[in-house]
Amino acid sequence: MTKTIFPNATIARLDVLTGTWSTCITTLDDTGADAELFTATDLYRWMPGGHFLVHNVEAHMGAEPILSMEIIGIAADGESYVSRNYDNAGQVSDYTATLDGRYWQIDGAAERFRGEIDADSGTLKGLWQRWDANRWIDWMRVTLTRRG
Fold this sequence. Notes:
Layout: H1 9-12, E1 19-28, E2 34-46, E3 53-60, E4 65-74, E5 81-87, E6 92-100, E7 103-108, E8 111-118, E9 123-132, E10 135-146
């Protein structure tokens, strides 16, 4: 495999995400207690040219698989990121994101993620929240563990 040459340092920071990850998802009930445990596989790979990171997800939550593809690129400010996610239910979601050292933050209109990457242990742990009744509610805890 050839090494990706990045057009700038901002996009190169996302290289910490590349690879295949085994993901554990714990949904939370309305009180914040653990509700259900699910698994997923997350794959981050570079598009040729190194301008965009492609993120594919295959999750198993209930009877139907959840499949999605996200494309992440640099925002207009040149320091943060924008992404668009497409899923097998026909949903399209837009997000902004920042990567500040080890801290990965994703913000959407009705959901957000706050997580921390530990490159030494090969993990990304964080919390998804959803907007409900004028406040953020804890929704899912996730742990991604890098394979190989």
